[in-house]
Amino acid sequence: MGNSMFSMCKKNGMFFNSATEELGSYYPIRPECQADVPKTRFKARVGKTLSPRRWNAAFSQDGHLDIAGVLRRIQRGGIHPLIKGAVWEFLLGCYDPNSTFDERNDIRERRREQYAAWKVECQKMVPSIGSGKLITTPIISDDGHPVRDPSFSTYVQDNDTAKSNGGTLDRNEIQWKLSLPQIGLDVVRTDRTLVYYENEANQAKLWDVLAVYAWIDKDIVYVQGMNDICSPMIILLEHEADAFWCFERAMRRLRENFKCTSTSMGVQSQLSTLAQVIKAINPKLHQHLEDVDGGEYLFAIRMLMVLFRREFSFVDAIYLWEVMWAMEYNPNIYSSYEDSRDANSSSGIKNDEVKVNNKILKQYGKFERKNLKTGWTDQRGALAVFLVASVLETKNKRLLREAQGLDDVVQILGEITGNLDAKKALHEALKIHKKYLSKAKRSQ
């Protein structure tokens, strides 16, 4: 659909039907679900949204990308649906803007081969992977013994519970196989209002990508919410391997949030930063939240874990993501990931300690540029934290007046679903970020 639509638009010399183009047609909603989804506020705008024409013009003859110009346009008006997947690959660090077309083609082919190899490895253990089907019921018990379930076909029974390593499974394989039905259950609930996921093959594609990722990231494996992060990549990128690598890069940024132990959640570090931010910019609200037993800010977990996927329509959520990623963009992101020896480590990107000139500064996103100029290096302070802070600020008066307990806080914040303007929220987040950095600097 994307290629044919792109060709048609290119032929007509147009990429926008009007100054404010409706985008719902690109991600159609099932008719019976129309009343259940939040209203979409984002519109592609001529002269602001990054269009396919602008995107193509941003490349030199051999393929070098003018990332500074691309970032400016995205921060002003997001990305047109026809090119979202391709642009996301750069924003998330899949490719270096300074690379050529040929270099990127080589990288793409190598990654596709690597993904195919991992997928074959997984298929040998669970042949349902790659079959166009997905698993939603257990195939092994907690101790690794095969589970015989009458709902399975004979094929799945005989193969998905096949013995490995001489009949015994190692801990990693047990952990992975136990995660597969949970991934399946989450997949069938993912973006189920979209026509795209009426097709079981598309659901299976999402399940395959998450299953392979769970196998290679043995520290995280799979945690609920990763399906919400992965789904847009599946929809936007036609080739499954490309979608996988886009998701893998996104997880470099987010995986610390999904790390859980028996005593702590990975997202707690960002919750702690959120508490510091609110305490600095609005001490009265912070004290009130403490008084009503909300001082740990646990009510913000979902917003941070899945980056507001539940608070916005699909179109608004992915617009929010791409503008956030553009604002947080660091030109060293690709080399940082490639230089990392641990394929599953977090990004490790740090603000440059050396002075950079204005030309280099333009290659940073607006949010990251501010951090660089002020020397703020706290990697827990992602833009998402300030976005949550902006939401709390918009509800400040109601929270102070009406919240008598944690349930009231949750209820008041729950009302933002479908009623939050992503563009305004981002604008407020940047203002809060600037205010917080100013206060933090004065207190040093």
TrEMBL record:
<dbReference type="InterPro" id="IPR000195">
    <property type="entry name" value="Rab-GAP-TBC_dom"/>
</dbReference>
<protein>
    <recommendedName>
        <fullName>Rab-GAP TBC domain-containing protein</fullName>
    </recommendedName>
</protein>
<dbReference type="InterPro" id="IPR035969">
    <property type="entry name" value="Rab-GAP_TBC_sf"/>
</dbReference>
<feature type="domain" description="Rab-GAP TBC">
    <location>
        <begin position="78"/>
        <end position="328"/>
    </location>
</feature>
<dbReference type="Pfam" id="PF00566">
    <property type="entry name" value="RabGAP-TBC"/>
</dbReference>
